Amino acid sequence: MEGKKTPPPPPPPPSFYAPTTSTNTNDFSFVNDSFFEKPPSEVVKVGDFGPFLYEWLGIDDEDAIDPINAVDAAVQTPVNLPPPSPSPSSIILESSQVLPPPIPNSQNSPVFDIIPSEYDPGNTNTTDTTKTAGRKRRAESVAGYGGDGRVSGDEGDENNKTKNRLKLRAATMAKIAATLTIQRRSDNNVPKFAFLTESEDEYLEDGYRWRKYGQKMVRNSPFPRSYYRCTAVGCSVKKRVERSPDDPTHVMTTYEGLHYHGLPPELPPPRPFSIYTDSDVPITAAKPPVARRGSRGSGGGGGGGGSGSARAGHHANNTITSVNVENGAIGSGDDSARAGNHANNSVTIVNVNTGVNTCGGGSGVGDGGSKHSAAIPTDVYDQQMQIVEQAVASVQSYSAPTAPMIDVTPMDVTDNHDQSFLDVDHYGDFFSDEDFFGDEDLFGDLSFNDYNASSSSASGEDLVGKICTGLLEDIINFSPSMAPHPHDQQPFLWP
DNA sequence: CGCGTTTGACCGGCGC
DNA sequence: GCGCCGGTCAAACGCG
């Protein structure tokens, strides 16, 4: 790791990212009450969005005050939704609106902390299920969920740890961005996000059932794009699958819409996996410290199959931290063992199409009566993070036989640039292959200290933190009032 | 025979 | 208006 080179000057972050009240880019104390004393159109409207989030998560609002306990409870006790509110666009089919827990798995372990049991990846035969696509692949997936569950990568040195830590922070930022996909896009009012997977198999098993409805050659790619729809009755979620023209070893899967139903009952539980948090990046400073569970470094997940100390999705203290996602055994919990190692079929989120409103909200659309408070960006934000992690974990648990970290890079996935939404190129500038986090990037060849020393006269200059700050501002400005409410969705039935 | 995939046709948006 | 392009439809196809 001594490949010394002069650190390139860091690209200036988008101007709106820079916090105006603090030079400490990890200081989010500017997100205080007064921060939210903006016109209602410019603040998060948890009144509209909160119930959706809570219900989607299967937890009570009251419980959600304590995300840790709430999520724990949600795993064990699915919540019955209240009767659906009348909606001219909804078609009431059944009354069975029981939202399952986000990850219908382990009985006692919290979300994202699935303890290997009968689905011990080490027990599954490693028959290559990646050779065939489509129907056959899925059939095999249902039957087996092959994978070795190994932790790829080697033990790293301090530099690696630093890099990995930074990458984790990048992942955090991307997850923040990903949460924003919950918002409807302005073009089609459907949230989108995409995964880039390194896989021979184009079909990404994610636990849901899909029906292919089209395939088309697209411009600038020798590979076709496939179109799928969720087969659940009343579910309008779609996904597109295409192989990257730049790197045929990578497959991009774009999801459009959100499932308001559980996984098909005939599918087995997801493979064991675990997400745990890293404590580097305080996203907000809105709450006093609380004893943290599942922080990285406190055992890293119980080792050897994950005993459960690594609890992802549990953002105690509202300190949203970097999140690492693993399959299989957690091992030592040392980040250095995993970052950047993208084994075959690993799931790498590199692509998040955000619906971030950068125009100060102002949607003006919603139920009315929305209220806002300083608590919104903490609790709700935690829930949003969990939603994203669910999506991540779902794909990860069903499709990734190995255990690389998720490396998240927000970028545009649709070319549908819309002035009313965040131009994710702002983030792409930082996360593309030529940038800080790419293979040839600054962090790849230089330590964080090197970067700091060269990039700022002030010690601890932290672009990452700045970007985080900017993302947070986007979140604040993000008006979720347009988010779809589950009651407006058609109930779900499996055909 | 049922169900999911394939594949050419069709449609709408967009730029010129 | 025309052509391009992405997305979707739907009849034909094929596999179990």
Automatic annotation (TrEMBL):
Keyword Nucleus (UniProt): yes
Gene behind the chain: WRKY23_3
Compartment(s): Nucleus
SUPFAM superfamilies noted in UniProt: WRKY DNA-binding domain
Compositional bias ranges of the Low complexity kind: 122-132
Ranges for domain WRKY: 199-264
Region annotated Disordered, chain positions: 1-24, 116-162, 285-315
Biased composition (Pro residues): 1-16
Protein name: Transcription factor
Stored Pfam families: WRKY (PF03106)
InterPro entries: WRKY_dom (IPR003657), WRKY_dom_sf (IPR036576), WRKY_plant (IPR044810)
Keywords: DNA-binding, Nucleus, Transcription, Transcription regulation
Keyword Protein biosynthesis: no
SMART domains noted in UniProt: WRKY
Compositionally biased residues, Gly residues: 296-308
